[in-house]
Amino acid sequence: MSFPTDFIIFGPNDIDLQRSPLRQSIQADTYVLGAFNPGLARLPNGNLLIMIRVAEALRQPIVSTQIHNIRWDPERGYVLDAYELNEVNAADPRKFQILDYPFRVMALTSLSWLLPVELNEDGTEVRDIHYDKIIAPQRSYQEYGVEDARITKVGDTYYMTTCSVSAERHCTTLYTSTDGLKYDLQGIVLDHQNKDMVLFEGKINDKFYALTRPLGDLYFAYAPDSPYLPGPAIHLSESPDALHWKPVDEPFLRARKASSSTSKIGGGTQPILTDKGWLLLYHGVERHGVVGIYSTFWALLDANNPARIIRLEDQSPILSARPDLLEHLKDQMYVTDVVFTTGLVDAGDYYVVASGEADLACRITHVPKEVFA
Description:
- Belongs to the glycosyl hydrolase 130 family.
- 0% of the residues lie in helices and 46% in strands.
- It is built from no helices and 27 strands.
- Strand 23 (293-301) and strand 24 (309-313) form a beta hairpin.
């Protein structure tokens, strides 16, 4: 499906690395591996905010016989750790596996931080880059970075979930804001690996609800005649205060054998309430190559009982990867066939949809509301 307004709004070349938080303590040569997966919200002044994940990477992680990762230390700031090449698997330039363990242990050659960028009302122009409000590691559980913001406004408060990465744990953290620009860390809300937690934009029966997607290295098989496939799926959780979460017992959105998302699915945008129910966009992955093909699908949920799926469109994606949009960045691409949708805002006759394109740049799409009729 194609739309007349569909373009790249921000990419790695738009970032001034002299204003990166890493410059506080390391002077190693770095570059922007990706500026992508933007959370999206409307600010009180009517403009839009995209909260961009900036993956800042070492240009030369390998020096002589050693490979290096970037890590934030509470005492020393940003540091480089060195490992002997014969002790790691460095086949992926973005990370490497340390071999001397009975389980997978990884280190990253990049570190992610969040950059707030203000757009105009329809998301077609950049108005301001708020380097003074960068979100960077500040607790030990964020030593390898802060990733993939999702922003939801409930009442007068903006709630932003992020993935915090460390040797301690791979967890979900919550930030809050009253103006949509300056965020305060509230701490860990999910104490396990969960890549796609996003709050509903409004309470249901006086409770907060959220999409979650717990991850693991082991999944159990469904019955052979089941319509569902094992693997990462979207779950529901509820909370009295957005800090303490209880998973909903019933299963929710799962990959189906009859769909085109046969590898895995995960939450995308914050669910927003429409006159037909809660509208959410999510990503589904088709098996192909090493990474797979990431596309965007959608669902409608009952307004009063979000566990009840009214409509599920998991056959034909509404957004697919657009490599043509990245022609000006083709020399910097390292993955293809990936669109990762992360934000949704009502703009009258259409929705503004924010996505990460090819783990490299930020894409804005105007989707007419009749698409969801």
